[in-house]
Amino acid sequence: MKIIRGIANLKNQFSQCVLTLGNFDGVHLGHQRLINHLIKNGKKLNLPTVVMLFEPQPLEFFNQDNAPSRLTSFQEKIIFIEKLGIDYIIAVPFTQTFANMSADHFIQDWLINKLQAQYITIGDDFRFGFNRKGDINLLQQYAQNNTFFVESMPTFVWENLRISSTAVRHALSNSDFQLTHCLLGRDYTIQGRVIRGNALARQLGFPTANIHLHRKKPALQGVYFVKVKNICNNQCYVGVANIGMRPTIQGKTAILEVNLFDFSGDIYGQYLEVMFVEKLRDEKKFDSLVALKEQIAQDVCTAKKISAKLTN
Q1: Which of 12, 27, 68, 252 sits at 20 to 30 Å (Cα–Cα) from 166?
Q2: Which superfamily does CATH assign the domain made up of 2-154 to?
Q3: For the whole model, what pTM was predicted?
Q4: In CATH terms, is domain 187-311 a member of 2.40.110.10?
């Protein structure tokens, strides 16, 4: 799979294509169904498959402070979409200029002239263009006068629940990881590279692997029992993770901190996948570092009991 960053970097990689576009936050089962349908039509027409993403996601651009929590970073989206077998991803920088583009201009100049899309499929609730004027109906109007075919995918439902990024966020906010798995078709994980922190956790006796979240507002907040896989060497661990702002030390940015049980090596720069199994408690501000240390010790004890129960 190749990543094309911006429509200006679309050179001669392909002359025609089949296309889908959207946010794809979470790459849940509905997204997967849409992408698999695109791949099926790509094979029928013998054309490359293209997924167009927007970064930042539109709601993050328009109202960053009140945008929905982010399920997947851009890098995580790339990983999940590549596994499905897509040929190209076009990552469009969502800027004010792009936001001001009319839906008609976007269809004619981008989808028809530049991409020469022969088949386009989108979710039935997807909107695009200035003031969100573009939808499946507008695309079908253009399709009548041009040589491409348009199709919308109906809502994918699991046990009477509409599968959507919103539904996944709701399940995560309730720490319902079983429902989350059913909506995603996989366990909910956060992936990222281990960065250097302020070493405070080490001073407290609980060294952590710190992972930058690459999102302003994560979909989880609190302390969790987690399973961790080191993507670099396939080693697996269990541990306790805190995800949030670290209010006790006046943290400014949300971060993921993972204390790996029975591990003392150096994993700076390693790429970890953290799977959330059970929530232990909400994040809270402690009056002192001593109180924080006592709580962490209690969290570790609780998490080890959960681990032992699962092992047995």
Answers
A1: 252
A2: HUPs (3.40.50.620)
A3: 0.92
A4: no
